[in-house]
Amino acid sequence: MTELFTRAFADDPYPAYAALRRDAPVHRTTLPSGVDAWLVSRYEDARSALADPRLSKNPDTHSRAAHAAGKVGIPGERSSGLITHLLNIDPPDHTRLRRLVSRAFTPRRVAAFEPRVQALADGLLDAFAARGSADLIHEYAFPLPIYAICDLLGVPGEDQEQLRDWAGQMIRHGARAPRGGVARAVKRIRGYLAELIHRKRSDLGDDLISGLIRASDHGEHLTESEAAAMAFILLFAGFETTVNLIGNGTRALLDPVHGAQRAAFEKSVADGDAAAQTAAVEELLRFDGPVEMATWRFAREDLVLGGPGGPGGPRIAAGEPVLVVLAAADRDGARFADPDLLDLARADNPHLGFGHGIHYCLGAPLARLEGRVALAALFRRLPDLELSADPSELRWRGGLIMRGLRDLPVSFAPLS
Ligand code: HEM
User: Residue 49: pLDDT band by 50, 70, 90 thresholds?
Assistant: First the structure.
């Protein structure tokens, strides 16, 4: 079996995932943190595990101590009082909180946000367009989602640099170690959000946090700590993921082996063909998505995973962690024709990049919008864009849940 979690694996995990799908589709492994967990890698198994009520999202199903130590879940979320968020809870609490936030985070609100995302993308591009070179992670993919989510939540402009700083600390420390840096950043963000929610209560606006407060006033109550946890998870889930969509997507399009796909994307941009750009974003999510493994799940009881009619997998004991490997499932040849091929016009593409079931990504419409606008602006505005490094030399962060680049150096013809 190919070794997991090495540097070579971080650079290209797909051969190891092919081996897992073939030889050990439900595989027990020891994670770099020392925690033992089961990896689910085949598409059908992954899809059913994501919606399996026998798998809980509550970290206490596993071990409160492991959670407190930041070995499962988001480091610092327990000590910061941020654990009652959507990714850590099961029905009926999940149903109630998801309904509440869905009332505030509507597709209409997201669609109305497009001009703002466009202006953000253009503003960031303006800052380096005359230079002829840039690091697209630090100067483009990273700032765009954090400013977007801050705007949406209603973080005042003068506080956004501070949030950007803390978010940077979360990402910088987000790889396997050290966990303490993430926990510190989470604590600061928590303090800030609690204070912001408090302020908004007496001065409601048109933003998402005000929408949450309003929604909670309509019969269903949202406690102060639930509101803070909700704002936090929107920020946390909506930030690094989108950085990686823009980063991984740009890398894939700039890789010379994908020249024809890049030409097709550029044509869709020149033609203003939003449908083709939307399909392209879906394929980039499947091909090299931002979320390598879905967030933590834990067996509520002794159970066996695996599709009906299969040979039956190994027995998973109550309390054991299960990680659904989205990146492996989305390259499964049993579901996708030519799974290792980037095909922006792929018609049959029910990828799992946004998950599946009751925890399906709440921010998917916003993520799709940001991905489409950011990639289209980049390829429309920067002529002769190319990587300044060999694609194989680019460095990946090597985190467990997320898959993303540390940097993405590019050059292009400077704009005067
Ligand atoms: C959940 C992916 C962007 C908010 C999820 C899940 C995935 C995912 C895979 C399910 C996790 C699981 O079942 O364990 C992505 C990707 C994104 C993205 C690939 C970008 C390309 C966003 C954005 C927001 C957001 C922009 C909000 C502003 C959430 C929330 C959940 C979630 C709140 C939890 C939903 C629940 O548990 O009910 N996302 N996400 N995501 N995402 Fe996203």
Answer: very high
